[in-house]
Write a structure and sequence with these properties.
Number of strands: 7
Shape: globular
Strand content: 25-35%
Oligomer: single chain
Distance between the termini: 42 Å
Radius of gyration: 16 Å
Strand order of the largest sheet: 1-2-3-4-5-7-6
Helix content: 10-25%
Number of helices: 4
Largest sheet: 7 strands, mixed
Bound molecules: coenzyme A
Structural class: alpha+beta
Length: 168
């Protein structure tokens, strides 16, 4: 079976939960959270499957106050699927949907030491001819009470809209 990319459904939630647990350094969430991602947020999330099961998953949403932003929450590709541009293709799959026709920016947060994640989002900016800016966002002491490394907000864009307008 070739790798298939598409919209997740609620019956994928448990397998997504297992995938996230197998992809450190990602934080696991409750299985209920993954069920919501695969149902309420399915239109801005993407799943990849092969004959062995779930191979990759991207959870995302459009922040209510920022309809031109796709916020990418987590990206996970099983070790057997890495290095094939799967993470990048999953994000492109989301961006190509009608739900995202007004999206002009991608945002995500990354810890300073997650080299694979920085490489992924720098690659997305480069391929989209878009700028990438970043700044500390959720900070170790102020937000996480010392229990988690600072998450840096990464903002990529603007991407052209359907009308071809790419002004910021
Ligand atoms: C990060 C992760 C999703 C990448 O998945 P992937 O499908 O292998 O990534 P891609 O093949 O789409 O690679 C995208 C770009 O990132 C680069 N990249 C991917 N993994 C990398 C790594 N470990 N080190 C350096 N660069 C890396 C690729 O070379 C590619 O860059 P290019 O376009 O310049 O060639 C995957 O390694 C993973 O699940 N890691 C554990 C969870 C995690 O850290 N998720 C990200 C935080 S949300």
């Amino acid at each position: 079976m070739p790798v298939e990319l598409g919209v997740p459904s609620s019956t994928d939630g448990a397998a997504v939960h297992a995938l996230i647990a197998a992809c450190p350094p990602l934080d696991t969430n409750s299985m209920y959270c993954n069920l919501l991602q695969c149902s309420h947020f399915a239109g801005t999330s993407a799943i990849a499957r092969d004959a062995e099961g779930v191979l990759g998953f991207v959870s995302g949403y459009r922040p209510p106050a920022q309809p031109d932003v796709l916020f990418v929450w987590q990206v996970a590709v099983a070790p057997r699927g890495r290095g094939q541009r799967l993470a990048g293709r999953l994000i492109e799959d989301i961006l190509g949907r009608p739900e995202c026709r007004r999206v002009r920016f991608i945002e995500t947060t990354i810890t300073a030491d997650n080299e694979a994640s920085w490489a992924l989002f720098r690659s997305i900016a480069r391929r989209g001819n878009a700028e990438l800016h970043h700044a500390p966002h959720f900070e170790r002491d102020e937000h996480f009470l010392g229990s988690h490394a600072t998450e840096h907000l990464v903002r990529i864009g603007p991407f052209p809209t359907d009308s071809g307008d790419s002004n910021a």
